[in-house]
Amino acid sequence: MTKDFSTFFSNEANLRKASVMAHPAPGTISLSTGLPNPECFPLKGITLNVESPESSFQKSNEIKRNIIDNPDEIISSCQYMDSNGLKYFNEWVKNYIIDNFKPCYQNWDFIIQSGATQSLDALFRMLINPIEDTILCESLTYSCFLETCIPFKINLFSIKMDENGILPDDLNQLLTNWYNNENTKKFKFPKLLYTMPTGHNPTGITLSSERREKLLEICNTHNILIIEDDPYYHLQIDDDNSKHIPSLLKFDTEGRVIRIDSFSKMLMPGLRVSIVTCNKLFRDKLANHNELSIHSASASSQLILQMIFKDWGHDGYLKWLDHLQSIYRRRRNIMLEAFDKYLPHKLVTYNRPIHGMFIWINIKLNEFPKLPNSNYSDSEWATFIEDQIHKIASEKYKVILSKGHWFMHDKSLIQAGFRATYSYSEEDNMIKGAESFGNAINDVYSSLYSN
Ligand SMILES: Cc1ncc(COP(=O)(O)O)c(C=O)c1O
Fold this sequence. Notes:
Layout lengths: L10 H5 L29 E7 L8 E7 L4 H8 L8 H15 L6 E6 L2 H12 L6 E5 L4 H10 L2 E5 L1 E2 L2 E2 L1 H9 L15 E4 L13 H14 L2 E5 L27 E6 L11 E6 H12 L7 H44 L5 E3 L7 E6 L14 H19 L5 E2 L13 E5 L5 H23 L2
Parallel strand pairs: 4-5, 4-8, 8-9, 9-10
Antiparallel strand pairs: 1-2, 3-11, 6-7, 10-11, 12-13, 13-15, 14-15
Helix pairs in contact: 2-9, 4-5, 6-7, 9-11, 10-11
């Protein structure tokens, strides 16, 4: 049974109504809306050059559409459209959600938007009252999520993680003791948890199925929503494609999970297309917001996706995921081998992610004790060590990794680390980069403790 989540709406969402400029129903003569006349669209056809599954994505095929043979596709991709998106693409998305995420309540729905970053902003505006509201996140979290929170002046609290991800018991304890805890009781009870359960950014960790189920139980008990931001879901590089880890949607019987999918990591970020799967109440409110902001996700991007998916077919799409996963698997292995060889194991540990694009390098702070003359607190010292390594690595060795503190909401955590990504750099640069970064760590260590 879906619950009534209307009390979660922000003041802004409560004021937001459907636009009067709704699209005319099929069969109606519209002398109303200002849609440009299709005769005025100069686009008469599209040819894409796309790698084909038959060639194991080594060669490309031409995929063509033209106005004579495919008038509907070409014209609707030029025209204003509603938030349901292009017809075939909409059907593809619906099947994609059913096949992969298996929502288990009746009236789930979805909306197509312009990338996960835009979806997150729209969700915040739908749910958050600036200054007043409280949100929970993982102790290390996506830096752009933290930056999205800033202008909303959100009260943010983080949940502890271990090497296997967010700790459901810590979440439960925080929520159970909310009004007895001196640090939390003056803030409003949290509205939602933001989490990245698969190939987490920045740590690369994937949450087990058991912890996912536990999270849902806790959020049901305490009546908070979950935003499941999952752009790395298909980079399950060590898994058999038939045995994917379940989405949180699979455990959601009430409609409290808002899942964000993105085509950025699965295909191309330049398309700017995302999918939000959620209960119908939230979907309709997001549609009202689309009408007065992005209007719809780019129709041309949707047409490109529609053409590619039609051409590949379901099997071709599955082959694409295999192909993608094999590329990232190879890259991850190269980076891990380089880390095994070049990073100083006395001073760091790192994980071996099975999903996503990231490896987390943890600095062993017990090997970097505070200097006797230092006035720093423990957390300031952790930041100092991280800053020093980053400075030497970037200035002397010309290699950059992301600083752990960029991903921390709570800067008082006594933790230092770095996010490395194996997605982008040339393969030999990953090896050189690992060697240089290892040298930078050793340099900082020697400069502090060699006398
Ligand atoms: C967790 C997470 N969410 C969202 C995004 C952004 O996705 P999009 O390109 O769809 O805006 C990223 C990209 O790095 C990400 O890591």
